[in-house]
Amino acid sequence: MSEKIVLGIVLILTVAIGAIGYYQYISFENIRTTQAAQYQSFQQSLQKTQDELHGNIDSLDKLLQNEIHKTAVLEQELTGKVSTVEQAVNLTRKENERSLNVLSSQLEKVEQTSTEKISTLEEQLKNVRITNKDFSAIIKDVIKTVVSVKTDKGIGSGVIIDSRGYVLTNFHVISGAAKAAIITYDKQAHPVKLIGTHEATDLAVIQIAEEGSYSALDFETRDARIEVGAKVVAVGNPGGLEFSVTEGIISNAERTINDVAYIQHDVPINPGNSGGPLVNIQGNIVGINTQKREGFEGVGFAIHAKVAEAISREIILQATQ
Asked: Are 169 and 150 within 8 A, CB to CB?
């Protein structure tokens, strides 16, 4: 083959290869340009999306801040309203407590006044009954408080002065006794517990040694009811005749013998009456019968109520401390 033909073929191949390369370059440039345009469009879309997202976030943040502010305002208003309600409730409660205290005080006064009026009416009724009928109107109540005190030395009387079963009697009734029993109005015998004695006034306090609530007699505390000429009765067991009642008057309202105050009376009393109560028409103890003047009739003595009450209360207090 001649050189010209070879050179022609080489030239043709070179031109062909160059054309192919140029075509490929143009195609690559077109693809790169297209991709660049697409990338730029994507970047623009992404930026727009980011801008929109930031805008939405800002809007949501403003909305959230606005709601937080509203919530804070509502909480503050609610706290104020709760505080106002609590103050109103506390004020109402205090007013109710004051009203209740006032009502309670008024009720106590009414109850006290009613109790005093009832007590006064009962006393007036008792006095009317006594005036109309004599001592029989109170004896049935008084006699339930009187007891027989039986010992191995003899028999005496006593009176229940406290619902817990404390009995006041004479010291000489139980002095030296080894055994004793209390006989109540219902004929029941009860064991005895010695609480205390006061030999100087011839008084002793014993107790029914069985738990229970017993009818008791009160002491007379008004001097106006312990006066000369006032009617009185003695309740006791003279000569062993249980629960006997004798009547008379006060002869001397306060006779002092050996520094002890006595009531002198003309009520018939005998051995066995010792320790029993001397009672006025109000049904209260004015004295504790203790002795009579030997050889004389109608000269009896009872330890004054003010002495008997003070000594008995002191004995009971010392025993219960």
From this structure: no
Contact 174, 272 (CB under 8 A): no
Residues in the chain: 321
H/E element, 277: strand 277-280
Bridge-based pairing state of the strands 155-162 and 166-170: antiparallel
CA distance 178 to 280: 34
Tokens encoding 131: 């005036």
First and final C-alpha spacing in the chain: 157
Q: Give the CA angle between residues 268, 271, 275 to the nearest 5°.
A: 90
DSSP letters for 72-84: HHHHHHHHHHHHH
For the stretch 69-118, pLDDT in tens is 887 888 887 777 777 777 877 887 887 788 778 777 777 777 777 677 77
Residue with tokens 């008379």: 248
Tell if the pTM clears 0.70, that is, is over it: no
Could you read off the pLDDT of 3-25 as tens digits, one per residue?
777 777 777 877 777 777 777 77
CA distance 141 to 157: 17
Distance CA 49, CA 56 (A): 10
Q: What is the per-residue burial (b if ≥16 Cβ within 10 Å, else e) of 13-28? A: eeeeeeeeeeeeeeee
Long-range pairs for 127-136 at CB < 8 Å and ≥24 separation?
Answer: 127/281, 127/282, 130/281, 135/231, 135/233, 135/245, 135/247, 135/281
What is the residue whose two structure tokens read 């007036």?
A: 124
Cα 73 to its chain centre, rounded Å, is: 48
Residues annotated as catalytic (active site), given as ranges? 172, 202, 274
Amino acid at 129: R
Strands 166-170 and 203-208: what pairing? antiparallel
